[in-house]
Amino acid sequence: MPSLKPNTSVFFERARSSRHRAQPVLNNMPTTLDYRQDGPIVGLTLNGPDTRNSLTGDSLFSAFEQAVAKINSDLSVRVVILTGTGNIFSSGGNVQEMRDRTGMFAGTPQQIANQYRSGIQRIPRTLFQMDAPLIGAINGPAIGAGCDLACLCDIRIASEAATFAESYVKLGIIPGFGGTWLLPRAVGYSRAAEMALTGETLDAKRGAGRRTGVQSGPFRRPHSAGPCPRSQYCKKSTPGVALDQAPAS
Q: What is the pLDDT of residue 227?
């Protein structure tokens, strides 16, 4: 029987080094999202270093949909870990497209709203359908929609380099990824309002993220002592059963 305690650092090391970059296992799956399975653990890595892992482009949206379909069809999957390539989790929306009013940000307000629904909002809609628990391994800044993506995870484990910012207000826009719904559930209404109205950045190194609830716990450095946190979910998570399918207590 295979061990349920694989090396804790494996997905982070692959994310940091292009030499060990995970290869997608789905047929024709875009490489904007690397997919790797190690026994009951699936690692998803945002792979857009040129745009600081921004959440943009139909290829990325489709990759999330394909990945979740694959995970839901495999009852051996017990936990999914989401992280980012390099030293950033996700910069959120593509700021260059916002500035130039291109891509999803082109057109009238009604057209932009429709493009949000048919574009970036496919990611939260898809992840909400995933049956396995989702751990956010926040390896660096999680900004704007990147912060919302972190809040969408069931559990967030952050490195000392992680920062969190609901920074839409600095660009004169409102959260379009679901932040107005996701953030209050992670940090409470008052703190969410403060983050959204000021664009304040929370620094995981100083513990601000954990104190407010946006960060569930610190990321243990590779090879350090202590139990592997994800092994707890492999042991206790029933295959193919989502948290939202658990009976109410």
A: 38
Alpha-carbon gap, residue 76 to 47, rounded angstroms: 25
Domain residue limits, the chain = 10-224
For residue 224, name the pLDDT band (cuts at 50, 70, 90). Answer: very low
Count CB neighbours of 80 within 10 A.
26
Protein fold of 10-224: 2-enoyl-CoA Hydratase; Chain A, domain 1 (3.90.226)
Q: Of the ranges 5-9, 14-18, 78-82, 212-216, which is most confident? A: 78-82
Contacts 24+ apart (CB under 8 A), 237-242: 237/78, 237/79, 237/132, 237/133, 238/78, 239/40, 239/75, 239/76, 239/77, 239/78, 240/72, 240/75, 240/77, 240/131, 240/132, 241/131, 242/130, 242/131, 242/132, 242/133
